[in-house]
Protein: BACK domain-containing protein
Organism: Panagrolaimus sp. PS1159
Amino acid sequence: MEVQKLEIILWLEFSKLFSLKFASNHFLDLLRSNISDLIYSECFLNAKKDTVKAIAFSRWLNVSEEELFDSILKWAKYNISKDDESFEESLKEILKDILPQIRFPIMHVSYLEKNEDIKILFKTEELENIIFDAKNFANNQKITNASPFIKSLRCWR
């Protein structure tokens, strides 16, 4: 059976719903190898949080960390009511267990400094620590533990 790229997320969620471990692993592998198409799809916006978490937890992705974060942020915003009076708090809440898997220290420093959403998600001191680690990473210097985020590249297939 040939699975269409944009159906992979649906099949993954279906296989998880029925505890089909082998099928779940197969669809997760398919998802990883097609991630650059899938993260920009409407299907991704409608994905369950567990699916988005599984993507963020993956070591094997062939997209930049900036692209991954942007798509996850877009997913989060899509899944929060626009009328929500505490939109920023809701954004933090929906992302709280996904953000630790985003590798902020390997992102471009200019991206981190200019991204307004990152400024919403982190306190000033946290953001300064992330940028400090990102500068060290960019300059091939010893990475500190100023920020608690993973500081290694993901593997590309």
Observations:
- Residues 5-102 form one domain.
- The radius of gyration is 16 Å.
